[in-house]
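Margin note from the TA: students keep mixing up input and output lines. Inputs are the sequences; the output is the structure of the whole complex. Example:
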Amino acid sequence: MIFIGIDIKMNKTIRKRGRPRLLDRDVGLDVAARLFWERGYEGTSIADLTEAMGVPPPSLYATFGSKEDLYRQALDHISQRENKAWLEAIQGKMSAHDAMAFFLHDAAARFTCPDKPRGCMVLNAVLQHAEKTESVAQLVAARRALGLQTIKARFDRAVAEGELAPGTDTDALACFYVVVVQGMSAQACDGASLATLKQLADIALSAWPMPAAHRQKAIP
Amino acid sequence: MIFIGIDIKMNKTIRKRGRPRLLDRDVGLDVAARLFWERGYEGTSIADLTEAMGVPPPSLYATFGSKEDLYRQALDHISQRENKAWLEAIQGKMSAHDAMAFFLHDAAARFTCPDKPRGCMVLNAVLQHAEKTESVAQLVAARRALGLQTIKARFDRAVAEGELAPGTDTDALACFYVVVVQGMSAQACDGASLATLKQLADIALSAWPMPAAHRQKAIP
DNA sequence: TTATTATTGTATCGATCACTATTCAATTCA
DNA sequence: TGAATTGAATAGTGATCGATACAATAATAA
């Protein structure tokens, strides 16, 4: 007899009573995330999802709830995988400048990875949308806002640590780099190459504010 | 008797024989453009459009063809209005730097105009989409590519005129500024203020390449 | 075994999608 | 005036949308 169960909190197990599920949750989320990433929320139908997962609709609904619930879970699923590296860089010990350099170049690489959809699943998602998709739009917008806040917090730290001049407008600077990565995502969707994205990442980094001591007019 | 006709090429007029049309073409395009702009292509239904125009579906189809045709025409309609100012700036006599400054600040103003949808109708449109929307995606992608090409051409001119150093990577530089305006559009959709967009436009302009004579390391 | 429970598989549900066949009304031309 | 022409208005088309009702199936519990 094969024991199948799910560990929940301290060795406590729950044995399933009824017929076992055909659909593995993580596999389903991988499939869903890929489709949503590629086609967007409105562009992905339940039929697309069930076909790709190889299960009938009731299985999908039993496992994930509604289409919106599935989208939310797929976002969480992918975010954990995609945000890990740059989040550690941003919140780690390297300088804010180096962290942003890593952030942009890492994004360039991820946005053009051959075995994934182009661009970012979140950055350009549900910007234009039907009224009935408002709640989903707010969902992704909140994630974008979280990213912006994370970067601003790092810049605030850089000001506190003296890397950036006191009085630096960290809101605007954070928004600038989010705008850059957001535009990079869009350009990746339009087919921009890794090389192009890396070049413009460097251009964006050249806008890094100089310490006050070294500030001067560029053109005499 | 009231004469109603359409002037076509040199005073030649066409008198309509049948029942006059209820739907004015330009009014319909204004309505359609606004809806597509706000909700995107997939997020706007024919029912939305006919209701907003106040005409039944057959009138819409008689005037504009298909939904995709209408989208294309609405794009043309809006593009003429929205692109005029910055296109003249880019192709006019002012320096490439000043033209880009105008371009970005004009975009910031247009993307946050209170009586229009936020952001740009084209820049963030149909990036993620269903397979059946592929032709529409290519339509807007081609428009974005045209904008990119226009800016690159201006930078090439700036190199030829000596404003930019010989050997400047105009492709990457053009892509950078397109990325910035594209990200600005996305941030505008997310609610960024005019002031914020203008600030980050200035940051983006600070990445403008210095003439070779004045180039130096920013941090010792 | 028998009962209980949960999930699968099938066949949808009503609503909405883009789109149109048909009929009626309004205009011009002869 | 009457015929021809053209668009409006009604009422749909089949397809697809997200989501489910229902019954057969497969597991555990008693």
